[in-house]
Input
Amino acid sequence: MADQLDDSILIKQFREASTKEAAFNGILKKYQEKLYWHIRRMVVQHDDTNDVLQNLFIKVWKSLDGFREESQLYTWLYRIATNESISFLEKQKKYSSVSMSDSESSPTHSIRASEHFDGNKLEWKLQLAIQQLPEKQRAVFNLRYFEEMPYETMSEVLETSEGALKASYHHAVKKIEHYILNR
Amino acid sequence: MEKANHIQQELSSISGLVSNIPKVNVYEKDIPPSYFSTFSEELTVIINKDNNSEDEMPSIFHGIQKVNVYDVPQGYFDALHEIINAKKTAKIVPIKRVFVPFKQMAAVIIIGIACYSIIGLLNNKNEISDNAFTDNKMILAEAKRIIQSGSLDEEIKTLNEKDINEYLNFYGEDVHAALVASSIDEDLLPEEEDYIFDDETLNKYLNKFNINNESTRN
Output
């Protein structure tokens, strides 16, 4: 509730020319880290995450004036972050199918290329398994597992029914289990 | 990174293996130091640059006068709203509904020509008019086979001008295509998806006009 109140104050301040920049910085400071990790788990590489995060906040700067507050700022930001990540991945896939450099630009390759990667550790296997999921299902799993987001909120973020999200999460966990057991 | 109880319970009920994976942020060590403390400053620079770039134009534009080099017909804008309003109320005929019967009509004509040359090879072409019913049945049976096997394009390639001319001289407008074309009611045409879900869609449609019946009597 405190968060909600803060957000509505920040939005109000953003709409005043004199407090616009301060309010935007407040939103940035409050959400940048959470959104960074959500995007990072989707696109994997830091540089790509940084690009997506910057684009996201530029969009927020340009369109927050028109935000109708039908949903919370928090869910609106997560929705943009998820959509931006998915469209980034789709563009990357299209590009790699043209440039034939699929293996190098894929998230799986990026995970394996990390200097901290340890293929024997379950937490790294989990990351590889997550990358096998379709983009939207990846978002469902990450939001539930890492962000521990309630299905009700996820439903607003992903604009999908709670029932469908529960089923998608269930299938995602099963696919991950299957991947880990067979590698 | 602790797992909340209800999330952990939910996970355990789906997969014991996944629920036992330590919940650690594997990317944590892999991000530049002070990234989050400098991010907002970097972003502010980008946004300011972006805002300024909307006003600032490259120097090449400074010597160019901002004039409109294009003309529009006289009175175009006065009449535009009327044209648009007229188009808003005009009936729009979906293209696919026109396309399907044309394809079928074209198929029957082309198959007819192809069969004409086949029959011509089997029989003496002069006898065709005497055996018109038998020939029609053969043409329709062959048409059905070609449509079902999807080899229409291949059949078109085999046609030659002589066969086309002879066929048209013989049958003129009295071709089965005319039957198909004349009996078309756009509202009765199957939807595009119907062809995907039901192989018999085309047969059922042709049966309505008693075309397929003739060919299946063979």
User: Anything to note?
Assistant: Residues 140 and 215 of chain B are 5 Å apart (CA to CA). Residues 95-216 of chain B form one domain. Chain B has a mean pLDDT of 67. Chain B has two domains: 1-58, 95-216.
